[in-house]
Protein: Transport permease protein
Amino acid sequence: MTPARTLATAARVLRQLRHDPRSIALMLLVPCAMLFLLRYVFDGSPGTFDTIGASLLGIFPLITMFLVTSIATLRERTSGTLERLLAMPLGKADLIAGYALAFGLVAVVQSVLATGLAVWFLGLDVVGSPWLLLLVALLDALLGTALGLFVSAFAASEFQAVQFMPAVIFPQLLLCGLFTPRDKMAPALEAISNVLPMSYAVDGMNEVLRHPDVTTAFVRDALVVAGCAVLVLALGAATLRRRTA
Structure:
């Protein structure tokens, strides 16, 4: 992997995103809009918003980055752009790292906006540092980017890329502990939830919600989410195809 080629790929992706206002709106504005809506859905019980708002602060960025990244990467392949790029002295690792860097920079902006809105405007009450919330939200967005890059290799159209969402995202959403504590689930479901990265993202948010200091559990949760993102990026590089069959 060559840093210059990685940076050049990231710059190209960012230039393309600059001319795609709908994708920018989806990545930057939709998570904020969902948090705003959620706050006033529970206007009569702000404690409920405090309980689930922190978890959703990580889940919303993951979902939006997954959708945008998977569709954008697939569009590059179906248009022949990937084939032309890989015909040049550009390795798969350079390409995947460039995409991850570009969408990662967008994820930073997205996480800052969503966290700032939730904590300083919507009044999300957390015991720990808002910066730790921001860290987990950013890791979740990067995980969504990695998952999107990975699943795009198995889709033949943008519609198929969207169809991966029920298979990849929804099971994690149901089993992550958002709706009920994971230790209250059936043993088989709890065991499955223990290997899903979104479970650790929610646990990390809950650690910040309840503890004023950085805990060992929080460090573990953050490292698991970050490790999963790196692993999925590596799998994405290994499965990247030049064209859609």
